[in-house]
Design goal:
The chain is an alpha/beta fold. It has eight helices and five strands; from the N terminus they run E-H-E-H-H-H-E-H-E-H-H-E-H. It has a single domain (4-169), classed as P-loop containing nucleotide triphosphate hydrolases (Rossmann fold, 3-Layer(aba) Sandwich), CATH 3.40.50.300. A five-stranded parallel beta sheet has the order 2-3-1-4-5, with helices on both faces. The structure holds adenosine-5'-triphosphate, (3R,4S,5R)-3,4,5-trihydroxycyclohex-1-ENE-1-carboxylic acid and magnesium ion. Its main location: cytoplasm.
Length: 171
């Protein structure tokens, strides 16, 4: 199997958490999520983001990702789903250079119904804000991804199967 972590990246609502959980279950390895870890240690993301501001939030997120990646090194294996904006950090992108990084590609039509509850960073017009972030971050996802999956259709379980097959094919 794979050394270190299988990291899932992509825009908000792409399914990183849902697919990551399914992939961990499928492969029988732990599932970690940087947003879940941040929330467990520091409290709910919206409040954390509001109190810290973007710059400090990104710094804390980067430290969290680094420590989760550290914990998955050596002989242990895990699936690690990142927050949608985690790739904005240069240090995080450098660390991802050593991981298997799966980009869940999606589009606005797919995620819009999933964003109905609102996301902390998307004040005002959710669709416009999502699209802007999606376009700004696309080159960064592209830079660090070792694999790409079309996440616009298929259940989280089906997408997990697809990822497992893609990773097996390269062995
Ligand atoms: N392939 C899928 N098919 C149907 N629903 C999905 C799929 N993937 C995710 N969902 C649902 O869409 C919502 C958003 O998914 P999820 O939280 O996994 O996205 P995310 O990429 O982790 O977003 P964020 O960047 O905010 O962490 C959840 O309610 C989830 O159950
Ligand atoms: O797209 C973003 O910038 C974010 C996505 C979420 O995963 C959270 O990490 C947070 O809401 C920020
Ligand atoms: Mg998530």
């Amino acid at each position: 199997m794979h050394e270190g972590a299988i990291v899932l990246i992509g825009s908000t609502g792409a399914g990183k958490s849902a697919v990551g959980e399914a992939l961990g279950r499928l492969l029988g390895i732990p599932f970690l999520d940087s947003d879940h870890e941040l929330a467990a240690v520091h409290g709910p993301i919206p409040e954390l983001y509001a109190s810290l501001g973007e710059e400090q939030f990104r710094q804390l997120e980067a430290e969290t990702v680094a420590s989760l990646l550290d914990g998955t090194g050596g002989t242990s294996h895990a699936v690690l789903s990142l927050g949608g904006g985690a790739v904005l950090d240069d240090g995080t992108r450098r660390l991802l250079g050593r991981a298997t990084v799966v980009w869940l590609e999606t589009d606005l039509a797919t995620v819009l119904p999933r964003l109905a509850g609102g996301r902390p960073l998307f004040g005002g017009d959710v669709a416009t804000a999502w699209q802007r972030n999606h376009e700004l971050r696309r080159p960064l996802y592209e830079e660090v991804a070792t694999h790409r999956i079309d996440a616009r259709r298929g259940s989280p379980e089906a997408l997990a199967e697809e990822i497992a097959a893609a990773l097996n094919a390269q062995r």
